[in-house]
Request: fold
Amino acid sequence: MRTIRRPDADSFPTAETSSARLANDAPLRLAVIGAGPAGLTLALLAAQLLPQARISLFDARPLERDVSGDPRTLALSLGSVQLLQRLSAWDAGAAQAILQVVVSQAPPTMRHPLFGGSQEPEVRLSAAEQGVAQLGAVLSYGQLVMPLQAAWNARVAQEPGRLSSRFGAPVQALKSQVDGVEVDAGIAESFDLAVVAEGGVFADQARKALSHDYQQNAWVGRVTLADDSPPGVAYERFTRNGPLALLPLRAEGGQRRAALVWCMPQAEDEVAGLSDAQRLTVLHSLLPDAVGRLQGISALKCFALGLNAERSLTEGRIVRIGNAAQTLHPVAGQGLNLGLRDAYALVEALRAKHDVAAALRSVEWQRAPDRWSTIAATDFLARTFAWRWPGLPIARGLALAALQALPPLKRAVARQMMFGRR
Reply:
């Protein structure tokens, strides 16, 4: 998408024009731009909950391009899993349930009574403690998108007069109008609302209103684990150089596996020059003993990390969700989950309100606490790894130990991780 023209102040729609449209019983004309997880989820939700709406889904990717083998790993919260189940777009057989999350601090640190005699303070969040079957799930991008796309295609086949797909049609420009937005995908068409769910990665994005380059790289890939490693456990390890995460994957060929996210400061990043054996040696020195032995490692891909966020989800009749609204550091694993919550809130607001303008005001207000608390917490954690203050590891360790020692606070953190801020 090449350009998004910013509207003049007097071109924003008013409640009067929106109410007039609804008074004439004209169906909502909705454009969804981007057929990734967030865009497909929103399109399916709108098709289900807004039965009169006319929905067009645009994506530059040709429909025949098979994305089922895309290995990028996604971690979904329990709320996201439940949403996809509601849409009949969840392949439980492809996902690995997260049964426990262990967040710990790597040495060096200091012994403290709160640590329980251990030099590695940690927090353990378990599904059993929270009274749920799982805290979330991990699966590949392809395994998430294909059921969503299949569900959408089936819905389009059932209602071809109301729903349409425009695969292979990249949107080149959006232009706000008095009572809607013009979408240019080779042919200019008018809609009441356009939702941009096409985000990309930090390195390729135009800079938004709030932007910060963390000067960090994320090395991502997969590792194989020893057979006696505990299943369904996600590990987040705070190291001197940045967070290191292992996300459980479904076993393959009887071999336990995990997705690796290894963050390093760019100025000290030597991962590219290491052999696989050397990478495994370094990882063993950083991870807790509970992980067990890593038996193998895949090729790793490197991504630059940064914060890139819009101040507002809405601009006239254009709404941004997912990475199009905010690209976050992976330290909390909440980027996609935040986008799916944005999608749900938008469709619910459109269903509940009498006009589009009121719905957009409502979703902006409703999503602000969850959105900004997630952005602020993620940004703060990411920045702390660039600080070299002598007492910082101790402070971080004390915070983890205090969280583990206070069950009500731990439950609140677990609930926010599963469902966002409500």
User: Anything to note?
Assistant: The chain has two domains: 3-70+146-209+311-381, 73-139+210-305+392-419. Residues 3-70+146-209+311-381 form a domain with the FAD/NAD(P)-binding domain fold (CATH 3.50.50.60).
